[in-house]
Amino acid sequence: MGTISSSDIRLRDLLRSSQLRYAAAYLLITSAVLLFLNIYAPLMIRRITFSSQRNAIMDKAQLFVSAFSSYEKLDEKNVRTAVQSVKVLHTARVVVTDAGARCLYDSLEPSGREGQADRLVFYPELTEALEGNDAVYIRYEGNELISKAAMPIVSYNRTIGAVYLMERDPDQAALIAGLQRTILWISIGLGALVLLISAFFSVLFSRRMGKVFVSVRKLHGGDYSARLPERGSDELARLGVAFNELAQRLHHSEEVRKQFVSNASHELKTPLASIKLLSDSILQNEMDPATTREFVADIGSEADRLTRLSAKLLELTRLDTQPVEQLEPTQLYPVADRVLRMLTPLARRQELRLSMDCPEDCILRAVPDDLYQILFNLVENGIKYNIPGGFVAVTAASSPEGVVISVEDSGMGIPDSEKPHIFERFYRVDKARSRKAGGAGLGLSIVWDMVQRNKGSISVSDRPGGGSRFRLCFPPVGPEEVTPA
Distances from the Cα of 438 to the Cαs of 340, 363, 407, 423, 448, in angstroms? Predict the structure, then answer.
């Protein structure tokens, strides 16, 4: 098999490049315009020149005819006399005939020559004029503009002869030829200039597009540091801004993904290691039934922890991948009441009080399952990280900005330095206490994602007297959306 040289590859890339296509398109459009200009402009110049020349020679012919209007019959004598009266009109040739096409006067014949009337003249223009019609023919021939005209001489509604004029105008022909040459040279110059400009801008555009392709390949290969210049305000500059924003978001997402994988691996490794250690101890050591049951119970606890962690990881994956469900008017009271009833056994074991102050007609816009999970996670956290004899309270009220829900607890609170990070995945304020309570640092992250999906907002602050207060705000429901009971 033959090898392909680098020059062949470059030629193939050039033939496929947008640079050549854009240059060819510019050149084709310019060539079409210049071709139209070289065809249309000379035609218009000739048309205008011919029209002016036609009017001029017909006016001269009319003056000659007017000189014969007083004669009832034409002969060589009266024709010569009439011609002498209008000889001031400069014409290359004047021919006058009678009604039978006999030549009575020809300016090209020597003056005074006899026998002119014996010659018949059958020029096409004269023939048409003797039939009673005006005739004019103009053509561009060689280096001259030749004009021919003939007009009948009428006396008492009878054609008694005809006048034939011919002019040669080299100046007009030279003017037309000069204009055509000028237009041609201008077209050649413009074509060359457009070709150079097209090539320049095509190369410039292709280089900028080449940088885009290189950056895209880097981004595709995992190099999220690739950036495009943002100079200018054209489409490529806006493309550069959009590309850089995308690269930055991808870089951030990749960092979050790596951190998530690292944290998830660490969280999964701990209970798995505990299960492995406990199972090895049971298998390798002789234990009494009570100790074995204790080890098996510990294994069950670690398995439950794994189950909870897996469920939360799946929930985060669902939030990241599934589209947002349609928000709908949702009554808050039944949802909050169900959350408190579900968590009452856990609160009793911790010796905590659960309370709710929520109007039964309080309606907000949200996905009902998301609202349940949000309140469940917040109340469960308030129970887990509380003090014996404390409480967790859920209150709600309507405000101009929407429906505001507060979840308060009497726990130890959250340090101010930790508040900006509590909604991050796998973040724990008190790592030792969180592990003991079975937390993985995902509950508040799930709450944050669900609140955002439901067009709401969440913030945390210290509760007067100790503990934390989570404030939620959801869009209100208009009166027209509320279904009458």
Answer: 20, 34, 21, 17, 20
DSSP string, 131-190: TT--EEEEEEETTEEEEEEEEEEEETTEEEEEEEEEEEEHHHHHHHHHHHHHHHHHHHHH
Q: What's the chain's average pLDDT? A: 78
Task: Report the side by side order of strands in the sheet with 457-462.
Answer: 353-357, 391-399, 402-409, 468-474, 457-462
Answer yes or no: are the C-beta atoms of 366 and 330 closer than 8 Å: yes
Per-residue pLDDT reduced to its tens digit, 254-281: 776 666 665 566 556 656 766 776 777 7
Q: Burial letters for 413-441: b for 16+ Cβ neighbours within 10 Å, e otherwise? A: bbeeeebeebbbbebbbeeeebbeeebbb
C-alpha span between 396 and 407 (Å, rounded): 9
CA–CA gap between residue 264 and residue 251 (Å, rounded)? 20
When the candidates are 3.40.50.20, 3.40.50.720, 3.30.450.20, 3.40.440.10, the CATH number that belongs to 9-221 is 3.30.450.20
Cβ atoms of 316 and 352 within 8 Å: the answer is: no
User: For the chain, percent helix, then strand, then coil, each to nearest 5?
Assistant: 55, 20, 25
Fold that domain 328-481 belongs to in CATH = Heat Shock Protein 90 (3.30.565)
pLDDT tens per residue across span 450-478: 888 888 999 999 988 888 999 999 988 76
For residue 409, what is the enclosing H or E element? strand 402-409
